Amino acid sequence: CAMPKKKPAPAIIHFSTINQLKPAIDCPSADRSLGFPPQRTTWEAYSGEKDALSIGEWECEPGAWRITFHPHRHEFFHVLSGRLRLIDAAGLATDFGPGEAGVIPAGFTGVFEVVEAVRKRYVMFDKPSKR
Question: How many CA atoms lie less than 13 Å away from 83 in the CB half-sphere?
């Protein structure tokens, strides 16, 4: 009797090796940028749940742009270095610096501002839509 082949077990991810990954580099689109669009670099270390989960590190040059989170996407982040500011639609600003963490809730609309070149770890999760 032939034994069914098992899928290899997923590898453990150690963030000390994240810079060995090929990063994705982009900028906010011109219609969302508030001033010169800063360069953003993302090292996605893990994705799962049919791409509904993304975990990695992200860094960005100083700059600001308008954001609107998808109604099902949440992001937890932890700032490793630098400073960022989130400004909600009502104008309330919340700052984050090294060692601080926060959550951008699904549906958030406002401005994402990188005050000082920032690097953060993130976990983004898309909750399933109700069927």
Answer: 6
Structure tokens at 101: 């963490």
- Please give the C-alpha separations between residue 56 and each of 75, 77, 88, 89, in angstroms, as whole numbers: 11, 10, 24, 27
- 113: nearest Cα among 76, 70, 71, 82: 82
Q: What is the mean pLDDT of each run of 10 residues along the chain (131 residues)?
A: 71 87 95 96 90 93 96 96 98 98 97 98 86 52
| pTM, full prediction | 0.87
Does the CA dihedral 12-83-89-30 come out positive or negative? negative
* Interatomic CA distance for residues 77 and 101, integer angstroms: 5
CA dist., res. 46 & res. 123, Å (int)? 9
